[in-house]
Structures are given as C-alpha cells and as structure tokens.
Amino acid sequence: MAWYDSAVFYHIYPLGLCGCKKENTGEAEYHFDILKEWAQHIAKMNFTAIYIGPLFESVGHGYETTDYKKVDIRLGSNHDFKEYVQYCHELGLHVIVDGVFNHVGREFFAFRDVKEKREASAYCNWFCNLNFSGNNEYNDGFCYENWGGYNLLVKLNQQNPQVQEYLFDVIRFWVSEFDIDGIRLDAADVLDFGFMKAMRQVANDVKEDFWLMGEVIHGDYSRWVNDEMLHSVTNYELHKGLYSGHNDHNYFEIAHSIKRLNDICRGRRLYTFVDNHDVARIASKLQNKAHLPLVTILLYTVYGIPSVYYGSEFGIEGQKEQGSDWNLRPALSLADYADAYENNEITKLCRKLGQLKKEYAELTNGTYQELILTNRQFAFGRILDGKECISALNCDDAQASFEIPLCCQNATAKELLDQEAVLYEVTDRQTLKVTLPANTGTVFYVE
C-alpha cells in the first residue's frame, strides 16, 4: 500500500495563511519559519500529509505562474522551501504542491518572447489559438486562448511535445531540488488526456509512490482516476452532498453519492474535502452549526483520502465577498488558537479522528457497507477481516434510537469518540442498539 492510501491531508494556501502581499512587487518576504510552526501543529493534529500551493513565482493569487523553478519571493527562497520539505519529512509528513500546467501568467518567459517577437517567436506553438490579427485589453496586438475568460491566464498547448517536455522537466526539478512527494494538478478537468498519460509515466519514474491528484469538479471521475492517468481527483460531488444533505436533512443524498462514487471508481480513493481555497467554509454553509461534527466524522470515515483546509479544524467561517476568494484565504496565527486542542470541539474531533485513522486499518482498507439509512439517521461500516468501524449519525433535533446489523457473531463493541451521552449495547441478535442524542454522531469499533 502506498503512503497516500492512508493519508490524511492538511491543505494550505500559503500566500493567504502567511498574510503575503496580494501583488508581487519583487520585495522578498520570509515566511517558512511560520510554515514550520504550522507543520508542528499539523503533525500534532495527526495529519500525515500537506498539500501546499500555489507556491511558485507569480504576479498575484499564485495561479498565473511566471517561473516554475522559483519559489514565490513573497514566501521565501528555494533554499527555504527545500529545508521546509526536509523538516516536514522529519515530522513524518509528506508534501505535495500545486502543478499549474494548464495556463501561465503573462510574464512567463515564453509568452514574453511572443509579445516581443510576435510571429517570429520560437514559442508561438506553446500557446493555444494565437491570433495576430486580433487584440485584447492589454493591447498586445494579438489575442489568444485563456482560462476561465481571464487573459491574465494564458492557456498552454499541452499537445506540443516541447511544452510537455518542459513541464516534465519541471516535475523532475521539483523532486530533485525539493524532494516533494506528489502534485495536485490545477484544472485537471481541462488538461489534455494524452498529456496526463505521459505525465503518469514521469511520475512512475521520478520517485517511488509519487502521487498525482487532479482538480476535477464534474463528470465521471474514473475517466481521470485509473492506471494510465491520475491516482485521485477532488471529490466535489460528495463535497456538495455533505453540506446540502445536512441542510435538507437528507442522508439519502449523501449515501447515494458515496455508493455511486465507490461503484464508479472501483476501489480508487478520491480526495475528500468539505471546503478549500475556492469554496465557502463548511461552517458558513451549514444552516445548523451543530451539524459540523457530523460532517467531520463523515469526512474522516467514508472511503477516500480526507483533507482539511487550514483553519477549518478550528471551525472558522468564510464566504466569498463580491466575487473575490481572498476572504476564503485569510492570514491566521496559531497563537490565536493556542487553547483549541483542549477547548475547541472541532479541533479535538479532528485530532481524535486522525488518531483513529492511524490506529484502525478498517478506516483505510475496510469495505464500505451501508447499514442504516433514513432522512435523518445514517450508519455505515468499514469492514476488514471480520472486524468493523461503524459511523453512526443523527442529524435530527431529537434523540434517535435504532439497531445496526453487525457483520460478526458474538461481537463486542466500543465507542471511540468518548461521548458519554451515547448509549449502546450489543444484543443477542448480533445487532448494535444505539441511542444518539440530537445532532450527534460517533464511531464504534466492533470485533
């Protein structure tokens, strides 16, 4: 089993977390000491991997890359990042970074050459649909294909062998120079499939168990997650269900997504999350904040690779403001959350669930089995070698009692989240009789 199969990720948007300037003026900042402090926190919280990005030189939010081989000067130097990765590895944390390979910024060296030399540039074929008869808001005297309607983001021609080899050399550089453990592919849903297949070969060669995870929102995830392309993709379908299923008191929606995705992906683990740098915080999306622990339990115990976005382990809120994402990417100080390990319900729960993920192989390798399903109550098992971890959830405002069928006879059960208000017993019929208070969930171990 590869390291990522059992990983619990912590997602950092570093330009926001560190309070960097929103525009790159060329003035150096140094924040990796702060990021090392966060790495200590991450390890203490029982996370096992960090996804940090965007990380490389850009002009603004980080996804308009200008230099793939230089750490953004607003964060620090290449040497600083190399030391940071080594430090994380010493803490037992793997590190993956953003690979923004669909588009570049306008200051990328090859695009600067096109602006200077126009049709005579050797890099014309590096970009999609250059038209020297057109123009744009920058008055370049030509136009081009962009990403998302933003000419700030110039689309690369991924089918060009020179572009492919350049980006593959970037990957080799990131591994040789920084010793990273994988890449999150930005906008993977619009990347060329042939490009990703060739990238998988590079990943197989560059480092043992090197991980490729893609940002994909809609569609049949198995088109991307397979032996030829990516190891995993972002599970946006379940992300939507996790908040709307609670807001609507509809566990059928969540259960349907889990089963459908498990069937489609045939054992492949999807990257499961409740919020990230592009969407509102889960604490802001839930109409009833008492449901936040329930969502957190689901995040950690469904089949997949769980990820927590920085700050959400403290239950912070955040919405987009006037179309801007910066409110989703705040500067935070660990000193403001010094008492969270003991006094913050969500912090304690994340730490405990991370510990359970390490201790119980069922939560990684256990077969998923739906056990109880109503609009407001849901129980499922993760079954391995005749033992099981069972997640039991009640999103009703009233207490609920129900019986959960067990996979083994003469079983014993223990409740793993130390919730004294949860009542349970194993009956003679090999069932687990459970009483959950209102808006409460827990995890049982049965053997």
UniProtKB/TrEMBL annotation:
Q: Does the keyword ATP-binding apply?
A: no
- InterPro entries, sorted: GH (IPR017853), GH13_cat_dom (IPR006047), Glyco_hydro_b (IPR013780)
Keywords carried by this UniProt record: Glycosidase, Hydrolase
Q: Which Pfam families match?
A: Alpha-amylase
- Glycosyl hydrolase family 13 catalytic domain residues are 7-357
Please name the GO terms that the record assigns under molecular function. hydrolase activity, acting on glycosyl bonds
Return the protein name. Glycosidase
Q: What is the species of this protein?
A: Jutongia hominis
